[in-house]
Amino acid sequence: MMPKHRPIKLFFLPYAGGSATIYRSWRKYFSEGIEVYPLELAGRGTRFGEPFYQSITEAIDDLTKCAQLQLDGPYALFGHSMGALLAYEFACSLIEASISPPMHVFLSGRHPPHISAKQPIHLLSDHEFKAGIAAIGGTPREVLENEDLMNVFLPILRADYCITETYQRTRFNALNCGITFFFATDDPILLREDAEAWRSYTNKNFRLLEYQGGHFFLQQKAPEIAQVINEIIVIPEAPSTSRSD
């Protein structure tokens, strides 16, 4: 009888204001050989009430402690927007801790670490900050206009934007694993050339896959994105390609 392969753990890093719950519904789209592990950040979801991070470094140190017991086999990372920055820094941190590199890193919705934020918004007034969030899209109008919800949600968002907009790159490590970047053609905060710049962050294959939609296109494209991930980490990788959707 052939030995059963160990499942591949797929860690999800949330976008600004997001919690682990946003990716739990994705489980149904993945192969049986993939175990989905959405990581929860302090200050939201099951960790609501814990103090917010003061820096990306503090967030990565915490995530490394949270995930270390699960890093006993093959794994991959997925991060959208703020989660893309966290995924890259998380991978670097694990490698520096002498943990094997991820099989693959999947990113979307954010420029690479060497490119600064175009228009920082975390210091704006609440009114201006909400307008900036609304312009990006993805947050329902009824949420933005609900004072009780925004009293909870706004501090989380502002804290997340603070650590990403004040982030300063302290290292440049090209990862020893492939990177796939999911690019939305109508993303108002990401240029295609900036998405392409992630190519220099890997010593292996780089893929840029295009999809129609805005910054939060992945909310509608979860099945397609999951299928790409299934094909890459469950089925042996094919040569680097580009695709339009």
Helix content, binned percent: 25-40%
- What is the CA-based Rg, rounded? 17 Å
Count of extended strands: 7
Question: Into which percentage range does the β-strand content fall?
Answer: 15-25%
> Mind summarizing the main beta sheet?
7 strands, parallel
Content-based structural category: alpha/beta
Cα separation of the termini? 41 Å
* SSE string, helices as H and strands as E: EHEHEHEHHHEHEHE
Give the low-confidence spans. Answer: 237-245
Q: Spatial order of the strands in the main sheet?
A: 2-1-3-4-5-6-7
Mean pLDDT score: 88
Principal-axis shape:
globular
How many helices does DSSP assign?
A: 8
Care to describe what's here?
With 245 residues, the chain is an alpha/beta fold. The protein has helices spanning 21-24, 56-67, 82-96, 126-136, 141-144, 147-165, 192-196, 218-233; strands at residues 8-13, 34-38, 75-80, 104-108, 178-184, 206-211, 243-244. The longest helix has 19 residues, at 147-165. The N and C termini lie far apart (41 Å).
